[in-house]
Recover the amino acids of this structure.
C-alpha cells in the first residue's frame, strides 16, 4: 500500500508539474505534433514508467496518430529510422526523439518483428501490443473513446489499460496479456524481463516467469548483437547476481552462456564454499560496475570444469584453468560479437587472474616486478579489482585485505618510480641493439631485448643507456658462441 501511495502521489505531481518536467525540446515536438498533425499524441512506454518512478529519463518516446510521412512534413530534420514500422526520429536542438505512429501488428513469423503493421490504431490498441504492463502506459491529452486511468479528470492524463501503475507499485514485471504470446513475438523479451527487474529492483510475475522458462531454449535464435546488448545492461545492473541466478533457474543462462552454466553444481575444493557458477556470479557482482571487469569476473573461472584433476588424497585441482578459461572466454565474447578491445582486455584478465594470487606473502621486490611485468602496467588496477572480488567470492568477507593493500602500495610505488615493466620502458631500443652488436633485424635482437628487460626487472638501477649497452654487448657475445 505504501508503494502504491507513492506512485499515485508521483502521478499527481506529474500532472501538476508536467510542463516543468518535460525538456523544452520534447515539449516543442509534442506541441508541433498536436497542433499540426494529430491531437492524439502521447509520451509512451518506458518514458512513462521512469517518470512515475522518479528515474532519470534516458529516451523520450512519443506515439501519435499522425502517419510517418506527416511527421516528416511537420519537422525540418528527421531520420526514417524504422519508417516501415512507423518510427521517425525527430532531431531538434541536439535531441533525437523517436516518434512512432500508433499501430496494430500482424504475426511475428521471425520471432523478432511483426510481418506487417497497420496505422489505424488508437492509443489503447497500441498499448496492447507492448511487452510488459509497466511499459504499456501513455501520458497525453484526454481523447473521447479512450479509457484513462482512474482519477484523471483534466489536462494530461495517464492511459493504463493493463494495470501498469498497479504493477509498478507492487514491484512486478508482468507481460501484457498472454506471456507466451509476447515471448513468441520477440524471444529477446525473455532477457528483457529479467533485465528490467534487475535494473528496477522488481520481481517477475510467476505466470510470466513460467512462460519465459518454457521459451528460453529458443534464445539462441536471437541475434548475438541483441543478446549482448541485454547482457551488458544485466551485468551493469544493481542486482546482477540475482538476475544471473534467475536466468539460470529459467534455463536462459544455459541457452546463451552454456560454457558458464555448466559450472552450476560443479564443486571446487576446500578453499571454496561455492560451486563454480555461484563463485563466478559473486565475483562478477563484487567487481566495480565496469563492463570489462564484470565480464572478467563472470568468466575468470570458466575453465575449471575443463581442467579438473583429483589427486590420490581426493583433493580437487584445476591446474592451468586460467589459460583454458582465457580461450573459452574468447570464444564466448567473439560469439556475442563484442568489440576487439573488450575481448582483448577480458581475455588477458582471465589468463592472468592467478598471477597476483600466486605471489607468496612477503614476496621480494623482484618477484612483484615480474608479476607486474607479466600482467602489464595498464592492467594492474583491473587485476587487483578482480583479485579482491575473487577473494570475496571465496567466502573471505568484504573489504581490502592487508596483503592486497600491501601489494597495491608496492605496485603504485613501481609506477611512481617509473620501473621498467615492458620492452617499451627500457632505455634502449632495437635499433640501438643492432648498432651495438652489428646484428641484422631478426629474432636474436628480440631475445636480447627480453634478456635486458629480465635484468632490469631484477635490478632497476641497470635501466640506463650505459649499463644496457654493456649488457647488450655481453649478451651478443654469449648468443654467438
Amino acid at each position: 500500500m505504501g508503494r502504491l501511495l507513492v506512485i499515485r502521489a508521483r502521478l499527481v505531481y506529474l500532472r501538476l508539474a508536467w510542463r516543468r518536467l518535460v525538456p523544452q525540446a520534447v515539449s516543442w515536438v509534442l506541441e508541433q505534433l498536436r497542433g499540426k498533425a494529430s491531437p492524439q499524441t502521447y509520451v509512451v512506454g518506458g518514458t512513462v514508467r521512469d517518470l512515475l518512478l522518479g528515474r532519470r529519463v534516458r529516451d523520450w518516446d512519443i506515439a501519435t496518430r499522425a502517419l510517418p510521412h506527416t511527421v516528416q512534413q511537420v519537422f525540418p530534420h528527421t531520420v526514417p529510422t524504422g519508417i516501415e514500422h512507423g518510427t521517425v526520429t525527430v532531431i531538434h536542438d541536439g535531441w533525437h526523439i523517436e516518434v512512432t505512429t500508433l499501430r496494430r501488428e500482424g504475426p511475428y513469423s521471425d520471432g523478432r518483428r511483426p510481418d506487417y503493421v497497420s496505422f489505424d490504431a488508437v492509443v489503447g490498441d497500441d498499448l496492447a501490443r507492448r511487452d510488459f504492463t509497466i511499459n504499456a502506459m501513455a501520458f497525453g491529452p484526454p481523447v473521447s473513446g479512450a479509457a484513462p486511468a482512474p482519477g484523471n479528470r483534466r489536462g494530461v492524463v495517464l492511459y493504463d489499460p493493463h494495470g501498469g501503475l498497479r504493477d509498478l507499485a507492487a514491484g512486478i514485471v508482468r507481460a501484457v496479456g498472454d506471456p507466451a504470446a509476447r515471448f513468441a513475438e520477440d524471444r529477446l523479451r525473455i532477457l528483457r524481463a529479467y533485465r528490467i527487474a534487475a535494473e528496477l529492483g522488481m520481481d517477475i510475475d510467476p505466470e510470466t516467469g513460467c512462460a519465459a522458462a518454457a521459451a528460453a531454449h529458443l534464445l539462441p535464435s536471437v541475434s548475438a548483437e541483441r543478446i549482448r546488448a541485454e547482457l551488458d545492461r544485466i551485468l551493469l545492473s544493481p542486482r546482477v547476481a540475482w538476475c544471473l541466478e534467475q536466468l539460470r533457474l529459467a534455463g536462459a543462462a544455459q541457452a546463451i552462456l552454456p560454457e558458464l552454466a555448466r559450472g552450476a553444481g560443479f564443486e571446487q575444493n576446500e578453499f571454496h564454499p561455492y560451486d563454480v557458477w555461484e563463485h563466478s556470479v559473486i565475483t562478477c557482482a563484487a567487481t566495480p560496475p565496469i563492463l570489462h571487469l564484470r565480464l572478467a569476473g563472470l568468466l575468470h573461472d570458466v575453465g575449471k570444469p575443463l581442467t579438473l584433476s583429483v589427486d590420490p588424497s581426493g583433493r580437487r585441482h584445476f591446474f592451468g584453468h586460467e589459460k583454458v578459461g582465457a580461450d573459452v572466454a574468447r570464444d564466448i565474447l567473439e560469439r556475442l560479437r563484442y568489440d576487439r578491445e573488450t575481448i582483448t582486455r577480458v581475455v588477458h584478465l582471465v589468463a592472468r587472474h592467478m598471477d597476483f594470487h600466486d605471489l607468496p606473502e612477503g614476496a621480494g621486490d623482484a618477484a612483484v616486478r615480474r608479476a607486474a611485468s607479466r600482467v602489464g602496467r595498464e592492467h594492474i588496477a583491473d587485476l587487483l579489482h578482480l583479485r579482491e572480488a575473487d577473494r570475496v567470492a571465496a567466502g573471505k568477507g568484504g573489504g581490502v585485505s592487508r596483503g592486497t593493500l600491501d601489494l597495491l602500495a608496492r605496485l603504485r610505488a613501481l609506477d611512481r618510480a617509473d620501473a621498467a615493466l615492458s620492452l617499451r620502458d627500457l632505455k634502449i631500443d632495437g635499433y640501438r641493439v643492432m648498432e651495438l652488436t652489428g646484428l641484422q633485424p631478426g629474432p636474436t635482437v628480440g631475445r636480447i631485448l627480453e634478456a635486458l628487460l629480465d635484468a632490469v626487472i631484477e635490478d632497476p638501477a641497470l635501466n640506463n643507456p650505459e649499463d644496457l649497452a654493456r649488457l647488450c654487448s655481453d649478451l651478443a657475445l654469449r648468443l654467438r658462441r
Remarks:
- The first strand starts at residue 41 and ends at 44.
- The radius of gyration is 29 Å.
